[in-house]
Specification:
The structure is a single chain. With about 190 residues, this protein is an alpha/beta fold. About 45% of the residues lie in helices and about 15% in strands. The strands form two sheets. Strands 2-1-3-4-5 form a five-stranded parallel beta sheet, sandwiched between helices. The protein has a two-stranded antiparallel sheet with strand order 6-7. Helix 6 packs parallel to helix 7. It is globular, with a radius of gyration of 15 Å.
Length: about 190
């Protein structure tokens, strides 16, 4: 069962307003949730990446904020908050595909990162979502699906060395993820 939508917290509203008010430009725009917002992508990759991540965001929020006028190279990592909110993996995957098809841009879509600890109950649905995404994105022109779980898993959950809370990456986890990001972008 899906939870009813609550109004967004003030921190979300403030971040949306800040991102809208400050014109930014870069070679790449990275949209997503707190996993994106917390990343120091320019520093970790030496790539010109504008960070449009907002903690608590889901696919619907990202879809409403995508700005292809900023750049035509879009990175997306979103979906864990949708899973936690009770949405079905197939519904989330379909929404991500619709988001991509609505824009003329090159997209890199990142797997939803694994979780552990108190979030472990969501891991099965996260894995299911990642499988749906890999399948649905295959063959769509100008889309690269970036697998990340192989770097971050220990068994069936997020390796504790890469997270302090079981959901968000720590500095070591971000270094690993940034390495995969840079590799995915640089490879043709």
């Amino acid at each position: 069962m899906q939870r009813s939508a609550a109004p967004p917290p003030q921190s979300y509203i403030d971040r949306v307003e800040a991102l809208s008010a400050i014109p930014q430009s870069g070679d790449f725009a990275f949209f997503g949730d707190s996993h994106v917002q917390r990343g120091l992508w320019r520093a970790l990759t030496d790539l010109d990446i504008v960070n449009y991540g907002i903690g608590g965001d889901g696919v619907e929020g990202v879809a409403s904020r995508i700005q292809t006028e900023v750049t035509d190279k879009i990175l997306v990592m979103v979906g864990v908050n949708d899973i936690i909110g009770g949405k079905r993996p197939v519904e989330i995957a379909n929404s991500i595909v619709a988001l991509i098809k609505a824009h003329r841009a090159k997209f890199w879509v990142f797997e939803i990162m694994p979780v552990s600890g108190r979030y472990a109950k969501y891991q099965e649905k996260i894995s299911e979502l990642n499988e749906y995404l890999a399948y649905r994105l295959k063959g769509i022109p100008n889309v690269t699906f970036v697998k990340t779980s192989d770097l971050l898993l220990n068994g069936n959950s997020l390796d504790h060395r890469f997270s302090n809370d079981g959901l968000h990456l720590n500095a070591q986890g971000y270094k690993i993820l940034a390495g995969r990001l840079k590799q995915a972008i640089i490879q043709p």
